[in-house]
Prior knowledge:
The complex is a heterotrimer, with 2 copies of chain A and 1 copy of chain C.
Chain A: E1 8-13, E2 16-18, E3 23-29, E4 44-48, E5 51-53, E6 56-59, E7 65-71, E8 78-87, E9 90-102, E10 109-116, E11 121-127, E12 137-144, E13 150-153, E14 161-164, E15 175-183, E16 186-189, E17 193-195, E18 201-202, E19 207-213, E20 220-226, E21 236-243, E22 251-257, E23 262-266, E24 273-282, E25 298-301
Parallel strand pairs in A: 2-9, 10-18
Antiparallel strand pairs in A: 1-3, 3-7, 4-5, 4-8, 6-7, 8-9, 10-11, 11-14, 12-13, 12-15, 15-16, 15-17, 19-20, 20-23, 21-22, 21-24, 24-25
Chain C: H1 7-38, H2 47-50, H3 70-94, H4 99-122, H5 144-174
Helix pairs in contact in C: 1-4, 1-5, 3-4, 3-5
Amino acid sequence: LGGxxxxxxxxxxxxxxxxxxxxxxxxxxxxxxxxxxxxxxVRISWMLDNKPVAGSQRQGPGGTEVxxxxxxxxxxxxxxxxxxxxxxxxKQRIGMAEIxxxxxxxxxxxxxxxxxxDDYGLTCQWQQGTxxxxxxxxxxxxxxxxxxxxxxCTPRGGHSHCTVPRQLLQLYRxxxxxxxxxxxxxxxxSEHLHIDPMxxxxxxxxxxxxxxxxxxxxxxxxxxxxxxxxxKHMELQCELRYRAPEDPAxxxxxxxxxxxxxAQHCGFLFGTQYSFQMRCRRxxxxxxxxxxxxxxxxxxxxxxxxxT
Amino acid sequence: LGGxxxxxxxxxxxxxxxxxxxxxxxxxxxxxxxxxxxxxxVRISWMLDNKPVAGSQRQGPGGTEVxxxxxxxxxxxxxxxxxxxxxxxxKQRIGMAEIxxxxxxxxxxxxxxxxxxDDYGLTCQWQQGTxxxxxxxxxxxxxxxxxxxxxxCTPRGGHSHCTVPRQLLQLYRxxxxxxxxxxxxxxxxSEHLHIDPMxxxxxxxxxxxxxxxxxxxxxxxxxxxxxxxxxKHMELQCELRYRAPEDPAxxxxxxxxxxxxxAQHCGFLFGTQYSFQMRCRRxxxxxxxxxxxxxxxxxxxxxxxxxT
Amino acid sequence: xxxxxxxxxxxxxxxxxxxxxxxxxDVAALQRLVCDTLQLCKEDELLLVRQDLDIAQAxxxxxxxxxxxxxxxxxxxxxxxxxxxxxxxTIRALLPGHAGLVDTLQLDMANLSSxxxxxxxxxxxxxxxxxxxxxxxxxxxxxxxxxQVGGFFILANFQRFLETAYRxxxxxxxx
Lengths: 308, 308, 175
């Protein structure tokens, strides 16, 4: 069928609808613009993708023919609605509109953040929640406590995480952080986190430097460690765990002051090889503050019992 | 004008010396310009970075005190020479000069150039030779045969290659091309290339268009090719290589006239699949003229022997 | 104003004591760089030259134990942070290869200052809001040596400033 520019115009309002709700469309055919349609009655019909659907046709203004269509319960997430006319005994598709359906965005869940101490970037991740079937954009939002400018970051290519650079953060002060999800049917926000970025700093583990038996108290040992780079200025609370190869479980020593750099502990068997590991966290960190990983294992064999 | 503005001036001549050679320096102290040095004798001493070194002090013109220093064999590549005076029982650093040492630039090696036929830019590369430990600048120089203006190009940020734009080249004519390296201790030049830029044109390979068995001489084939864009006006000399899958080495057919566009060759087995490749170079190119890459492989199976 | 014992205030102090320690660590790192690369390490070897260098100093007398006054001390700390924020331009010029460390330091100083400002506002104290851009002119030096010694003293003075500010915060935390 020759040039159909303007011959038929199809409108769907709204083009994006909640799944299962009604959709109304109209097709206006301007006969004189439809090359080849000059003679005979214009009979308009509709196809939803490849399924015929019935509309009601009436005369429109200025000699146009208009057909209206209502789909009571539109339950495709995406479909193409074609406006057709009879021509030379065949059904010609002369106009099309795309319909999308879905849900407003689900509330993003399980928002959690970690501050990387190498570059002080704050990386947050979340779960998107149930699929809304519609193009949905996510933005992480960050606000200082004086509600100055809202900054944040945008995940790339459908990821559910992004990193707020140091310049946009306010350290050592409460910040409000949340995720906002938006599509054509609405917006949803995650829980708002109220955290000082430092509280979620991810610490590297300490390094156990030396372990020795203290001669006169034969069942005691003294150990020394180095704290991870970039944590020298922090007050750290550390834990030590140790066990002999045949022990089922680790013995735990907590409440060690990180900055001290050395500690003593007693109650070890003689001539026994023990494995030691240590981990730390910021003392002032709130419940959110996470422990570092355990340090690499360091083995040490206590000396034999002195002959009485 | 109180203060040490001009209280002490340190000169090292020259500030950049060959590694291991002697360095002489002098420090002139103008007492009345040194706030706080009004009383007592001015005793000048020297520090090379953090090592004391001895100088010889004498009275200079206009009531100044001058100390001269000779470092017989300066073997740091970089150091700071401080002029000091005694003050309130402490050694005060009141002047400084930086000394650098190294070698004259090494002769740049392995200069080679390629003319890019897309933009007719001449890209040359070279090797810098041993490190001179001094800031060294490299410049590629290009001179037409009539020794008119010397043009060329300067590599960016420590690279060892750069491209002379078409406008600065004289095509189809001998040019002299070399690299000049300069630092504070001297200049060195690479070998001079005497080439016509066209001689080092980097040709794109031809494209094998068709290969057919010629019916009546069953062990011969005819092949046709297209020359690379931008080489149509050149006299090209081409080579063909072919082999059957089980052949260990390629068979080579040389002396093919590029412009011809077609060639014939005999001696093929019947019903055998052969792989063919072709490459070309400018017939007039000197020894420096390089071959194009081999064209993409094109396979062809010769037809079965005709039943006798 | 009754400051001690206020839970929020204690949290502010704990956090910003650590922040100040971090900044002092970064300033010490810059001082080590000046020593390693420019061979300027001992202050007592540069006293004579210092006498005629116009080096920024920030007053902190309200933070000293004898004349301690919390509100003014906070304001003096903020004013000093601003002065040294500007002076760091001299350091960036001296150590071009370490601009990243200077940028981080300036970011931290700006954060510390706004943390103090917000805490003062929470306590109902009067505060000054500085324009974000720093208009103070970057000092010029008559020679490269004077520029280097100037940089040395900016860091030395800033380190002393931070020690005094740190002691004031620690004093408040102990009340």
